[in-house]
Amino acid sequence: MTHAVQVxxxxxxxxxxxxxxxxxxxxxxxxxxxxxxxxxxxxxxxLRCVNLLEEPTAGQVFVSxxxxxxxxxxxxxxxxxxGMVFQxxxxxxxxxxxxxxxxxxxxxxxxxxxxxxxxxMRNLEKVGVAEKATQYPAQLSGGQQQRVAxxxxxxxxxxxxxxxxxxxxxxxxxxxxxxxxxxxxxxEGMTMLVVTHEMQFAREVADVVLFMxxxxxxxxxxxxxxxxxxxxxxxKSFLHRVLNPTHVEETAPSP
Amino acid sequence: MTTDTTVAxxxxxxxxxxxxxxxxxxxxxxxxxxxxxxxxxxxxxxxxPAIQHAFFNxxxxxxxxxxxxxxxxxxxxxxxxxxxxxxxxLGLIVALMRLSDVLPYRAIALVYIEVFRGLPxxxxxxxxxxxxxxxxxxxxxxxxxxGTVALALGLxxxxxxxxxxxxxIQAVPKGQTEAARSLGMSQGRAMFTVIVPQAIRIVIPxxxxxxxxxxxxxxxxxxxxxTLSGYELFKFGESLSTRTGxxxxxxxxxxxxxxxxxxxxxxxxxxxxxxxxxxx
Lengths: 255, 280
Ligand SMILES: Nc1ncnc2c1ncn2[C@@H]1O[C@H](COP(=O)(O)OP(=O)(O)OP(=O)(O)O)[C@@H](O)[C@H]1O
Ligand SMILES: [Mg+2]
Description:
The structure holds 2 protein chains of 2 kinds. Chain A is α/β, with parallel strands linked by helices. By secondary structure, chain B is mostly helical. In chain B, 33% of the residues are buried. At the A-B interface, helix 2, strand 6, helix 3 and helix 5 of A face helix 9 and helix 10 of B.
């Protein structure tokens, strides 16, 4: 069986700044892989390299056995297999919710209007915002917008879903709704690569947790191991900071 | 810096001198007084009957109607709108070329914008009206004079509209393109279904402003040279004024321009206020 996603020897630089320094990641079909790590460690860049929103400087990306980084690949066609959900939702502001979830189906997959509407509505129902179909993104709460963004990606029937901190821009009381939908997706067997700061979610839903720091994968394994019992010092201190955000460093010199 | 000293002084001696508020009141009173004096002086000095005869002569005004509407106003509207439509699409194309990854496209767009924004409109109109027909004698411009005028106004306005569109396209968040591309849309598809529609919404106020400017620029197309049926508002008013030796037709033409541009200006302010409130 081919891997759902396979990334080998991935390097990415922005000018002189080397952001990814040799990343290898494999996501099996039906797996949920969570990527955690400090800000600026290159998590978003990794995700964006997987669907080639960023052109890798070196290395290969395979999705369902097709090499996206190959020069001959039709990148627009290949991307259809990858759904992406962004931190800032990025809904199309000039379109209704229903148009948001049908436009790509119609223009890219050439589905008929009725078919696209049917599939779009089914996905809106699945994420619990079907009653907002005729409204515009600006009229929705952040949590609703993010769920519409999920429905929009799901309507393209992706093999793999990529999530880049899908709950980081949300008010705390709206985070739960979005995580619930993601959990449901995972239960249905969707292959997911998720960048997140929600340790509880990673612990409960992920098959593999991957800790990144300074452009490298420092540690990866089942959540019980990486989050529950980290081996590397950097992982430990990161988790310590994330899980005790108000904790004052003991090593701070006292007068 | 003056405010600094005032504050400092006010702090040390609260009621010593004129407070800023009092001073503002006095300054305003002086300005009103000067304004009133100027108005009174003008009213006394001016020869009102002569002014009325030259500029607001009702008999002359009546003579201008209805042709100033049926010919002048009609042509001004047709010229401006046809030029605007052409300039709109040409401007959009130039803006997309300006933002292209392809260097020659960017270069062409830049040269186009610099040339047509830098040249006085009247020079472009003269060249199109006189130079081009001589240089391309075998070709006939369709629908003359409307074709030539639309082309002239379109070419000039496209340069301004291109810069407006570019600003609009750049104001659409990058995430919109990324979301579109991640759904499998090509660069071009993303541009036309996602970016450009939002860019146009963003720049509706400046686009309307440029329509106002074009209404005024259309008064220069007379240099292309038409017969009477092709006269627009300015040329119509001007020729009538020359013939009768009275400026009233020009005043009428001017008022008709204002009838077009003032409501558009109002519309721009409304649209801007609406955008400020966050909804388009
Ligand atoms: N387009 C870009 N141009 C230049 N530098 C970039 C670009 N995108 C990202 N970077 C840099 O790459 C580094 C990694 O960024 P990235 O967004 O991948 O980090 P991250 O792990 O997702 O962080 P966060 O948790 O804050 O989202 C940062 O230093 C960032 O400034
Ligand atoms: Mg990030």
